[in-house]
Each structure stands twice: as C-alpha cells, then as structure tokens.
C-alpha cells in the first residue's frame, strides 16, 4: 500500500483511487482493513478472464488505472505485450524441445 503526504492510504502510487483517508477517529489498522476490502473488490477485466495470453500479462490494477483511468479496464498495450511474450515463450519452448530431441538422438545408448 501507499501512504500519501495528505493522509490517503492507497493501494498503489500510480493511481489516486481507491483510497482511505486516515484521520481521527480512524486509526491506521482500521484504514488498512478498509483498504484491503477495497482492493479485494477490484475486478479483473472481463476480457482478461478468457484471454489465451492471461499467463503472460501484467494485470496490475495500478498500472491499468494509470493507462486507462480504471483498474478494471483493459489496456491495449497490456494485451499486445502479453501476446508478444506468449509468442516468444512458444518460440523458445519449441527451440528448447528441438534441441533436447537432437541431443537425445546424438547420445549413444548403453
């Protein structure tokens, strides 16, 4: 979490909302618990739930909010980066598997 100079406890320094104002009579522990509830309520963008690149995506709500203005709104740059990471992963995986197969064929059997 992130504490601003004016007493806002936020889940991230990239976005001002959601936040909890820490002031009397609200103590830090209570503010922390409220912040946990607000963060838990942030939903993963609907498009991300069925995306084939989801394992390669940085679906950080703070970064999404800084790019799109909403921690629950998908960003096209996130999608294109995830797709590219997935493509590179598949390429490297295929290369590694091919190398492993050729090494097994070259190794004499005892």
Task: Give the arrangement of secondary structure elements.
Blueprint: E1 2-3, E2 8-10, E3 19-21, H1 28-40, H2 46-49, H3 61-68, H4 76-106
Antiparallel strand pairs: 1-2, 2-3
Structure description:
The protein has 110 residues and is mainly alpha-helical. Helix content is 51%, strand content 7%. The protein contains four helices and three strands; from the N terminus they run βββαααα. It has helices at 28-40, 46-49, 61-68, 76-106; strands at 2-3, 8-10, 19-21. The chain has a three-stranded antiparallel sheet, covered by helices on one side. A hairpin with an 8-residue loop joins strand 2 (8-10) and strand 3. The longest helix is centred in the last third of the chain and has 31 residues, at 76-106. It is elongated and about 75 Å long. The mean pLDDT is 85.
């Amino acid at each position: 979490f992130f504490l601003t100079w004016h007493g806002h406890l936020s889940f991230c320094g990239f976005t001002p909302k959601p936040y909890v104002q820490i002031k009397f009579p609200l103590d830090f522990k209570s503010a922390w618990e409220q912040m946990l509830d607000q963060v838990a309520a942030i939903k993963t963008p609907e498009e991300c739930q069925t995306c084939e690149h989801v394992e390669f995506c940085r679906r950080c709500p703070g970064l999404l909010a800084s790019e799109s203005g909403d921690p629950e709104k998908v960003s096209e740059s996130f999608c294109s980066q995830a797709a590219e990471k997935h493509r590179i992963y598949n390429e490297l995986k295929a290369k590694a598997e091919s190398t492993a197969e050729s090494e097994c064929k070259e190794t004499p059997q005892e």
